[in-house]
């Protein structure tokens, strides 16, 4: 799995998402993260097909939405996603949220898809340690990935430690906190020191914390800029200053208290 990719949450179906994915692939992105909820799987699939890049060089993630959770309904939802994406397999399929009373059955369906060769890897999103405990107790396969809200304001240390200790790769959604961090003075100071943007500093921080990151953008300049994070490194003092920004502050829903 690439350490860096493009998220397409809120990228509109049609030209907008197609252009974003095409641009990202042109700039060297090889990982694209979508979901049934986003309503843009068809556009992602079209852009992949028209990119000219071999399928095996790309890493495509999608997710089963909450209303489709359960065993049979998850299998049906997956096949619909696969049809929309116009693919023969998906690289990573995730349980989007831990829907109470359903996510263990949903996981059983993902295990079947994995065993059938339709998915190269399976994982979860927005799972807390106690949700993961349920999966590990009832399932046969350890989730490959846990995709969670992760940024300097919400550093999820307990979740990260749990994932590390169980061989689960953590992945960040909303790594830039929906823009809330772009004028933070600490991050601006670190960015100036390295001749980089605040966004690039945050994304580099993700990588140095061994967290996969998938920033969302539909702007070509920003898609290009976001990817330019492999030519510098944050030092120990930078990492320590960013660690001090944690406020356990979410921009999204709480996985233990959501109603959708």
TrEMBL record:
Task: Show the InterPro entries listed in the entry.
Answer: AKR (IPR020471), AKR5G (IPR044500), Aldo/ket_reductase_CS (IPR018170), NAD(P)_OxRdtase_dom_sf (IPR036812), NADP_OxRdtase_dom (IPR023210)
Q: Which Gene3D superfamilies match?
A: NADP-dependent oxidoreductase domain (3.20.20.100)
**Annotated keywords:** NADP, Oxidoreductase
Q: Does the keyword NADP apply?
A: yes
Checking Pfam families in the record gives: Aldo_ket_red (PF00248)
NADP-dependent oxidoreductase domain location: 11-246
Q: Which family does it belong to?
A: Belongs to the aldo/keto reductase family.
Annotated protein name in UniProt? Aldo/keto reductase
């Amino acid at each position: 799995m690439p350490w860096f990719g493009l998220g397409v949450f809120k990228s509109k179906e049609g030209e907008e998402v197609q252009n974003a994915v095409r641009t990202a692939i042109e700039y060297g992105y090889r990982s694209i993260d979508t979901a049934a909820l986003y309503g843009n799987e068809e556009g992602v699939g079209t852009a992949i097909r028209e990119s000219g890049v071999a399928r095996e060089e790309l890493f495509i993630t999608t997710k089963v939405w909450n209303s489709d959770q359960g065993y049979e309904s998850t299998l049906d939802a997956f096949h619909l996603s696969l049809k929309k994406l116009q693919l023969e397999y998906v690289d990573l399929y995730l349980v989007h949220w831990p829907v109470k009373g359903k996510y263990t059955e949903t996981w059983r369906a993902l295990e079947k898809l994995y065993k059938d060769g339709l998915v190269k890897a399976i994982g979860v999103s927005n799972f807390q340690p106690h949700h993961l405990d349920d999966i590990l107790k009832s399932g046969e396969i350890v989730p490959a990935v846990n995709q969670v809200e992760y940024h300097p304001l919400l550093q999820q240390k307990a979740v990260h430690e749990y994932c590390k200790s169980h061989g689960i790769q953590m992945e960040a959604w909303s790594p830039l906190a929906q823009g809330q961090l772009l004028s933070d003075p600490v991050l601006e100071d670190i960015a100036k020191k390295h001749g980089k943007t605040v966004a690039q500093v945050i994304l580099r921080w993700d990588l140095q914390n061994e967290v996969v990151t998938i920033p969302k953008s539909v702007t070509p300049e920003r898609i290009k800029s976001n990817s330019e994070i492999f030519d510098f490194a944050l030092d120990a003092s930078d990492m320590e200053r960013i660690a001090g920004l944690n406020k356990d502050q979410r921009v999204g829903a709480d996985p233990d208290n959501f109603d959708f």
